[in-house]
């Protein structure tokens, strides 16, 4: 039942657009309202049902922890991570139950999370931007997008506010692709599917149908889609369609935790919750991978 309701996501989005159109049209006097006020509860009810429908997500059957290779090389830190809690992003929708966000550790030149300037930071100002992204496991590319622009960070108060309100809503209504930005979806052939999101424009290397080996470079870190600053978002699912997919438990077998914390993320750092996956880096902890950077490989 949950998958069926989640699969109706385009319908819920369409109904919300219609509700918003009716409300705005009535307030602006562009739509003649009926004399009876009973249409108001009806519109509110449709909006409430549609909003609730967008929050319903399927849950995967009981499964073991999926161990895979880390998709980045060198020194990184984690932000929204299953090493802190589940669901890692606060929702199960769109297969995000065990999603991970990673970015390069803070340096003296890293822009602040928020500042009072009028103009937000450019993606090129961040160390994460342009870093190679590697396949976590062998699989086949079944979907890709590579032409979305890399927008500026959302690190001014105005841009952050617009992101969590207007921009976030518009991207949600536009569909998963608008949220993911440039991305690659890889089917591993064993019932697991990986998504690599917010990639750099025109950096996606493999074509749809290409076969990737573990460690092969598939793109570079960007700032496309619903992203506040350049970072990599990865997640593991049980289906190829995001709206009906359930997230799967994921851990990287080749990371080394340093017990060092990223100073810029200090305000978000807390003790991991009971639901956290112990093998994954918790919020704000810097980790490394022993892999050397290697060129893209395909079968």
From TrEMBL:
The ranges of region (Disordered) come to 280-299
M23ase beta-sheet core domain location, by residue?
Answer: 173-239
One function term, GO molecular function aspect:
hydrolase activity
Q: Keyword Membrane: yes or no?
A: yes
Which top EC class applies here? hydrolase
Locate the transmembrane regions by residue number.
12-31, 37-57
Q: Which UniProt keywords apply?
A: Hydrolase, Membrane, Transmembrane, Transmembrane helix
Per its UniProt record, what Pfam families does this chain match?
Peptidase_M23
Q: Indicate whether Ubl conjugation appears among the record's keywords.
A: no
> At the top level of its lineage, which domain of life is listed?
Bacteria
InterPro entries the UniProt entry points to: Cell_wall_metabolism_enzyme (IPR050570), Dup_hybrid_motif (IPR011055), M23ase_b-sheet_dom (IPR016047)
According to the UniProt entry, what is the EC number of this protein? 3.4.-.-
Q: What is this protein called?
A: M23 family metallopeptidase
UniProt source species = Nesterenkonia aerolata
């Amino acid at each position: 039942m949950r998958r069926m309701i989640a699969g109706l996501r385009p319908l819920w989005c369409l109904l919300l657009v219609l509700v918003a159109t009716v409300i705005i049209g009535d307030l602006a006097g562009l739509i003649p309202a009926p004399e009876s006020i009973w249409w108001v509860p009806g519109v509110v009810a449709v909006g409430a049902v549609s909003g609730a429908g967008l929050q319903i997500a399927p849950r995967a059957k009981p499964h073991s922890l999926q161990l895979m290779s880390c998709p980045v090389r060198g020194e990184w830190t984690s932000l929204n991570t299953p090493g802190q809690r589940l669901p890692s992003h606060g929702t199960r929708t769109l297969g995000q139950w065990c999603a991970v966000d990673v970015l390069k550790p803070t340096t003296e030149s890293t822009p602040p999370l928020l500042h009072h300037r009028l103009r937000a930071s450019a993606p090129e100002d961040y160390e994460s931007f342009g870093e190679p992204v590697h396949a976590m496991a062998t699989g086949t590319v079944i979907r890709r997008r590579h032409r979305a622009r890399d927008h500026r960070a959302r690190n001014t108060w105005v841009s952050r506010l617009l992101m969590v309100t207007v921009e976030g809503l518009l991207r949600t209504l536009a569909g998963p692709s608008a949220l993911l930005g440039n991305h690659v979806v890889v089917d591993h052939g064993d019932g697991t599917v990986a998504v690599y999101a917010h990639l750099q424009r025109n950096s996606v290397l493999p074509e749809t149908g290409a076969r990737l080996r573990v460690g092969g470079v598939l793109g570079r870190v960007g700032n496309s889609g619903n992203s506040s600053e350049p970072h990599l978002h990865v997640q593991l699912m049980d289906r190829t369609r995001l709206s009906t997919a359930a997230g799967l438990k994921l851990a990287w077998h080749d990371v080394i935790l340093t017990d060092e914390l990223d100073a810029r993320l200090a305000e978000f750092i807390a003790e991991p919750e009971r639901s956290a996956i112990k093998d994954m880096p918790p919020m704000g902890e810097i980790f490394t991978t022993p892999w050397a950077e290697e060129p893209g490989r395909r079968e």
